[in-house]
Amino acid sequence: MREALNLERRKALKAGAGFGLLSALLSVGLISPQQARAAVNKGAFDAKTLDETYKALGVSAPAVSDQVVINASDIAENGAVVPIGIKSNLPNTQMVALLVERNPNPLSASYNLTEAAVPEVTMRVKMGQTSNVIALVKADGKFYTATKEIKITLGGCGG
Amino acid sequence: MSMNRREFLQVLAVAAAGGMALDSPQVLAARGGGRDPYTVPKFGNVSFLHFTDCHAQLLPIWFREPSVNIGIADALGKPPHLVGEKLLKQFGVRPNTPEAYAFSCLDFEKAAVRYGRVGGFAHLATLVKKLRADRPQALLLDGGDTWQGSATSLWTNGQDMVDACKLLGVNIMAPHWEFTLGAERVKQIVDKDFAGNIEFVAQNVKTADFGDPVFKPYVIREQNGVLVAVIGQAFPYTPIANPRYMVPEWTFGIQDDGMQQAVDEARSKGAKVVVVLSHNGMDVDIKMASRVRGIDAILGGHTHDGVPQPVVVNNAGGKTLVTNAGSNGKFLGVLDFSVKDGKVSDFRYTLLPVFSNLLPADRDMQALIDKVRAPYAGKLAEKLAVCEGTLFRRGNFNGSWDQLICDALMDVRGAEIAFSPGFRWGTSLLPGEAITRDDVMSQTAITYPETTLTEMTGEQIKTVLEDVCDNLFNPDPYYQQGGDMVRVGGLQYTCDPNARMGGRITDMRLDGKPLDASRKYKVAGWAPVSEDARKQGGPLIWDVVEQYLKAHPALKAPRINQPKLVGMQGNPGLL
After folding, report:
1. pLDDT for the residue numbered B339
2. Pairwise CB contact (< 8 Å): B464 & A153
3. Helix (H) or strand (E) holding B377
4. In the prediction, which pLDDT does A140 show?
5. Contacts of A75 in chain B (CB under 8 A)
6. Residue A6 and residue B212: Cβ atoms within 8 Å?
7. Is A131 in contact with A100 (CB distance < 8 Å)?
8. Using CB atoms, which residue from A3, A75, A83 is nearest to B240?
9. Domains of chain B, CATH where assigned
10. Which of A78, A154, A158 faces B464 most closely, judged by CB atoms?
11. Between chain A's N and C termini, which has fewer beta carbons within 10 Å?
């Protein structure tokens, strides 16, 4: 059943692309990421360290919470596109952000969520080297984090 | 017991001349136990037969187990990180027995002559048939790394092994090196050759776009009225350890959540026994067993550990057995479960070494093997050189085979330093045996065989060594990749496995002089995982080795370049 559904979804997407639906969907992203960032919080995205980023976001001493879950591979298959998911189980989650500690600018993404949104986001980020990634969540006015190390390796030499 | 090769052969000859089956009392007495080692008492009502990582070795081979298999952090001193006498003692294996020869590297050369070659699909087939006579319900599981590792598997694009596994009666398999034949070829075999014969399962392979499953995550079969589920786990780091461009649309990973989901789903469909056929590697399997609930056993491979008894792991759902069944067709695992009132109540496990002298070749399988090899017979048998020393690969650091390959790379490609991947496959040769082209291919037969010649700074060399070393010695198994340390020619170094990444490799020297971080060195290697390196089209590794062997037809034992180890005194993973 699931396979059948997937097949339908693929067909629909292919058909959609054929009729220009996909390009119409893409056009929703008319503003560039830079413009979007500028609108959100330029200072935070330009920050070069974790501390600077927290400062720019107005975060101080966030609590570690097991209610914030990072879903990502322990070793990245490709450092250029690392899929990372963040889920918050905290009530009244207002914001979810991803910080990559050892990237030149740690803040990779920040999502402001309405009450109607399920607090679960997925993104693909570029990572230059092995680093901790930090999920930062704002819920009920307070900040919470979860941390996971993602390894970027040269590859080769498998058993 | 003590018996020299001549006496051993005499016993066999007497047995054969008398028309006795090889499990006759005389021969069995010669094996030391006094009972038929291949009669595993019947037990329970659900059975699995398991082999793994045969690496396409259709014929009996020599295989020296490692003398270095270091465990650190939580793995220190625990199976599978035991070698030599420590391993024998842990599992109650008596020294100087055929079992000690099978499970350890002790007295390898002498024991090899005494007890003969191991493995071989025709001999394995005889063993499978014998066990199935007592356990007609048993499922035969192949843990993968089956379509790669020999000349004929490479030259037939895996077809020889596909046909051999069908004839052997494999029911279910899980993959790793299979993917290095490319996604299209894998799909072709699974959809056509395997259809109706062998199930190919992998819960952790998904499409990179939507995360849809590429293969069946598990299958459910019935044994004596009991539903049993077998979940597949592919090697999680395939696109990292092997070229990603060969499976560009698929994504892997360990995926504990996906595993838990598969277990729960299988249980909800009525499975009373759930086993995982895994290519994680044993350390990863042990960690996974502690995190996922409801698995009765993980039948593992990848790390090529011949572990005589399962490790029992506690988790929130109960207990999970974790096994590892060695490599190269050398072992067959037999796991019997007693299932009562819808639950596993007890088990028996035996890891049987496949002694080719004690198991007559199965006629049909031998005929298939002969047919597969016939078109290449002359090419395979060509003698390239003779080496005075034992040639082996397995171990955390350089073995003599890889030393020879590094020597060849430096010599033929004109490099100061050579790197050879820390593969765990590859068979052994005894001192004075001719090295044939078949043997060279058993060390090098891969689908990305180009050699490379690169200028690297001392700093870059250190980065490479640190990176690979962390894949071996990261204290968290989920960050390990299950290979051994990159083999290094020319360069001496000191290694501290307990240090953190960046601090394990020190005192790197070339010809006694410290390596200069900013100077460039000529470094030769092979098996590049990047497509760019491949496109440069360097000479192929087997041609490089062959050229070297032909120029050195009488080789002395290679001088093995081992790193100086720090903090490893008394580690039971070291001889």
Report:
1. 98
2. no
3. helix B377-381
4. 94
5. 237, 240, 479, 481
6. yes
7. yes
8. A75
9. 1-36 (no CATH), 46-57+119-370 (3.60.21.10), 382-565 (3.90.780.10)
10. A154
11. N
